[in-house]
Amino acid sequence: MNDVLIVGAGPTGLVLALWLTAQGIKVRIIDKKAGPGDTSRAMVVQARTLELYRQLDLADTLIAQGHHMAAINMWTRGKPAARLIFGDAGKDISPYPYPLVYPQDHHERTLGDRLAAMGATIERGTELLSFDQNDDAVTSRIRRADGGEETFTSRYLAACDGARSTVREQLKLGFEGGTYRSVFYVADVKLSGLQRPEEGHVSIEHGDFVLVLPYGTEGRSRLIGSIDDARAERAEELTFADIHQDAIKRLDVTVDEVTWFSSYRVHHRVADTFRRDRVLILGDAGHVHSPAGGQGMNTGILDAINLAWKLAAVLRDEAPDALLDTFDKERRGFAHTLVKSTDRAFSMMTSGGTVADFLRVNIFPHIASVAFKVEAAREAMFRLISQTSLVYYDSALSEGEAGEVKGGDRLPWVRTAGGDNFEPLPSIGWQVHVYGTPRPELRAWCLHRGVALRDFAWEPSYAKAGLAEGAAYLLRPDTWVAVADAEGKVESLEAYFAQRQLKPRRAAPVT
Prior knowledge:
This protein is α+β, with helices and mostly antiparallel strands and 511 residues long. Helices cover 31% and strands 29% of the residues. It has 14 helices and 27 strands. Strands 1, 2, 8, 9, 10, 11, 17 and 18 form an 8-stranded mixed β-sheet that branches. Strands 6-5-13-14-15-12-16-19 form an 8-stranded mixed β-sheet. Helix 1 runs parallel beside helix 5 (104-117) and helix 1 (11-22) runs parallel beside helix 8 (296-315). The chain is globular, with a radius of gyration of 24 Å. The model has no long low-confidence stretch (mean pLDDT 89).
């Protein structure tokens, strides 16, 4: 019996397949499309995604092929209104202090190539028709690319099949939320005349706005804007020539070529649950929201990494089935928070009315400019957009506090003489960090338990980051802090595993 059937080979499904395969879990991944995507709605890979991609040595590959967007320039009435420099905002927060522009079609091919190198095959043109589950397994009816049908049994089924998820609909899960009146358009174009062509641009005009994301060479850019007048009622008929182009023209650029154009309605919805027994819901199948801030694809990827270590632990009998309930708690909670924040941002940019239009054009850019000159505000904005502020304080897997770091936090990133404290383990697993000198009994416990111990010679930069000298920070396999124990005691860590019936997988310790 296979361990996991993954339905959907977009970024979420591919990352889930990669992280499970890396942990020795046997997966089958299917997608009803005949081939990988050839369009690129999702363009931005955020810092937290890149941090986690280090676990499988993927971050450097994306960075080498992607485009570093060091700054966003805001324009109103054809004049510069603000310049937001991300490199300054994130330089002390993450090894990746910028959004990376990397089109989704390229991204999917990179993930697919890595999966193939690990010995797993994506079955294209293969569709899930229906499924049933019992206490032990999920039985799925599948139509293959050759038209034949088969029955397939797996211990779990992971739905990564998008906003129109067959799995979610068959489970009859609620998908509460709504649909904005405005319609979004996206276009891949070749521009000439763009100032600072290596940076992003937002042009805000009365009744119109456009976001310009450069990528590649020779002026290749992605345009994102909204349509909120009568034309929105016939969105499927629109072409690039039909949209308002006031905001584009005020950038004093020329659109030399349009290689792709699409328009779509934007929804904001979250499923009732991300888990129904042996079926798990991830990515757009569980949550959809506006593209404000470039959060959607990154959220699906983090869903997959959150689930992968938990599913692997359950399948290897290293954790009870109840561990999977924390996937629903943690990720659905974040999805609700994300929908609210992106809803506010989207509404601010698209709201109609004279007052809203005045505020958007005349006030907002100046507020953003002033706020970005304040270090605390600049860092807060970077943390929010980069998802480095994502915490799991309310999770059953989070415990304790040491210094300014709590269970559920992302570990603060600190540069070291030889690199940084985010260097990945040789394999995905639990680890303990001690900044200072660990207790001898803690070292012995980690060796006995097969938990990697990483100790860092104390220096002031750790205190500045909020870490406590001599404390023990137990990190989950997805690198969030599970336990923060100020005294670095073995008893706290032992009790944590015993109370949750967790058995860390034995791995070579890091010395």
